[in-house]
Amino acid sequence: MKKRAVLCMLTALLVLSLAAPASARGESAPLRGADYTDIPELAEKLDRVFAGSPVLYSDIRCRTPVRADLNTGAVPPGTVYYVRSAAGEVYSGTSCYIYANAVYAALFGDVPCHGDDVGWINSECAAKNLSAVSFDGFRSLGVRFGALVRTTSNPDGSYNGNYGHSVILLAYDSSGLTYLEGNGDGRGLVRAVRVSWDEFNRGQLWSRSRRICFIVQPTAEYMASLAGETGLVGSFARTRAVAAFRDVPPDAWYASGVAFCCQLGILNGRSADTFAPAEPVTVAEGVAVCAKFLSRCYDDGRDFTSDGVWYGPFYDYCRIWGIGVDFAEPETPIRRADFVRLMSRALPDSALTPGDPIAFPDVPPASSFAGAVRRMTATGVILGSNGLFRPDSTLTRAEMAQIVARMADRDLRGK
């Protein structure tokens, strides 16, 4: 995995990436690629798409580019255009179909013109033959940023020889979804659209007697490879604004970690304007952060809501990954040694960076946490304090934020 300067994702993001600003339906609005992905390479490509950079061609040799600015009539209905994949294959089509494929090719190199076939380079089919879409449904399927969603009028959900619509998903949250489309509603427009889940279901599916025949998206591995180039691990898009905590001085050693983790949505403040950096972390809170990191790292859209005790789903999720979580009572303060052992199990080998481990004098080589400490110091996540690790000290919220931030972003390691 290359590293130039993210996770998912995936995407890889995300992306995904999920909540992001969106334009009003059919109205011109300034859009930025960075609003939808933290991966600079994808953000730059998306900016070029927003600005009308050619992704379509008017000739079969793909020598004459066609501009397709947002919110313009640059894609007349019925006009045949061409697009070339990263592998050099040329495909043709009209309206939304070819526009969506062209944008997808510009972002990920693939052209999913073959529908739900599996002959792509960087893509996978996330779903087939759906009668409706929803936030929970997309999360359970792990739908990512940039997915191509194709609807069909064929009652069996099949792909070929049908009327339908093709869009590129930019973002989604509990209130709705944002996408790019060409020839929206037959008006020959290239535009960004924001609709509620009900509006999409009624407007694109039910009122037109259509189904979703497939959702094609970049693989988690491909998104992770792009994220790796930026330093980020997995699907760690910063989807929230930076919180202004009055108890986190801008020059504090943990300030960057707090800002990063709160932007990720992995940590929250104790109130709207306080973070409580010196407050101890409980075992349950440590397990919850471990589970959230795992879920974001692998971009699986895990839902941690609970009808019972709040930390139950987090414990269950860690157990699925084979991570032991029953080492102490949930409401007791967690030791630094136990938290590092938890998080070391959550950090995949692909996210490690080369380095030498630190031999702390207070970490016995035969201790149960020695291996985790060696692994986390070698990759620059754990630095110690005044030459010591302090394994039995209670972990503070400031320390937790800095550890998680270094795990998620390689560029923060060793700092």
Briefly characterize the structure.
The chain has 415 residues and is of the alpha+beta class. Helix content is 29%, strand content 13%.
Describe this structure in words.
Helix 6 (255-264) packs across helix 11 (397-408) and helix 7 crosses helix 8 (312-320). The protein has helices spanning 40-50, 95-108, 135-141, 197-205, 220-230, 255-264, 283-298, 312-320, 336-346, 370-378, 397-408; strands at residues 56-57, 65-66, 80-84, 90-94, 123-130, 148-152, 166-173, 176-182, 190-195, 211-218. It folds into two domains: 33-228, no CATH class; 240-412, no CATH class. The chain is built from eleven helices and ten strands. The protein has a six-stranded antiparallel sheet, sandwiched between helices.
First-last Cα distance: 22 Å
How many E-type strands?
A: 10
Q: How many domains is the backbone divided into?
A: 2
* Uncertain residue segments: 1-29
Q: Give me the number of helical elements.
A: 11
SSE run: HEEEEHEHEEEEHEHHHHHHH
What is the strand arrangement across the widest sheet? Answer: 5-10-6-7-8-9
What kind of sheet is the major sheet?
6 strands, antiparallel
Which class best fits the helix and strand makeup? alpha+beta
| C-alpha-based Rg, rounded | 23 Å
Strand content: 5-15%
Mean pLDDT: 83
Features:
single chain, 415 residues, alpha+beta, 2 domains, two-stranded antiparallel ribbon, 10 strands, 13% strand, elongated, disordered N terminus
List the helices and strands and how they pair.
Blueprint: H1 40-50, E1 56-57, E2 65-66, E3 80-84, E4 90-94, H2 95-108, E5 123-130, H3 135-141, E6 148-152, E7 166-173, E8 176-182, E9 190-195, H4 197-205, E10 211-218, H5 220-230, H6 255-264, H7 283-298, H8 312-320, H9 336-346, H10 370-378, H11 397-408
Antiparallel strand pairs: 1-2, 3-4, 5-10, 6-7, 6-10, 7-8, 8-9
